[in-house]
Specification:
By secondary structure, this protein is an alpha/beta fold. The chain has 9 helices and 5 strands, in the order βαβαααβαβαααβα. The protein has a single domain, classed as 3-Layer(aba) Sandwich (Rossmann fold). Helices cover 57% and strands 12% of the residues. It has a 5-stranded parallel sheet with strand order 2-3-1-4-5, sandwiched between helices. Bound molecules: adenosine monophosphate.
Length: 192
Amino acid sequence: MSMRLILLGPPGAGKGTQAARLASRLGVPAISTGDIFRANVSEGTELGQLAQKYMDAGEYVPDEVTNQMVAARLSQPDAEAGFLLDGYPRTEAQVAELDSILEANGHQLSHVVELTADTDEVVARLLNRAKEQGRADDTESVIRRRLDVYAEQTAPLVQTYADRGLLVQVDGMGEVDEVTARLTDALGVTTD
Ligand code: AMP
């Protein structure tokens, strides 16, 4: 099924896990800007060195840098027939960039899914993930900052896409399988 989707939601809502599951059901690539930045950090690329200081502080990497990276990724052949964006767009400037990329290709978004989550629950999840994976951006003060940045810069995009009639809201709390089932139901994806 050819779908062009965005997955929105606060850090810790389970976007990465659900994006991977949903993308494999849909046969489209899950494109996570956070994963691309982390890969660049571990490879020590110039992009990674630039991104790391923002990531470690819980701040967003500047739009020009992120937009350029996403434009390059979306021009890869595997994204031609659809994609699921996880963690992008996060700012109005990124929304505008994505609009122009889509327009240049004569494509449109299918849906924008907001995975909703309870703040206390996401903090608990992130702290737990910090223990398990040791991510540098998962200390409590950085987690709080990431949630604030999300509330300030990204939460308003929910309304932007609602105004375009593209928004689908899905409760991200509960078991992983349960949330996946809610997502596939909400998107009308047939399961086999
Ligand atoms: P994530 O794994 O999606 O939570 O992303 C981890 C970090 O990567 C974020 O806290 C930001 O520093 C950076 N990042 C990921 N996606 C974006 C984006 N769309 N715009 C700016 N920074 C981003």
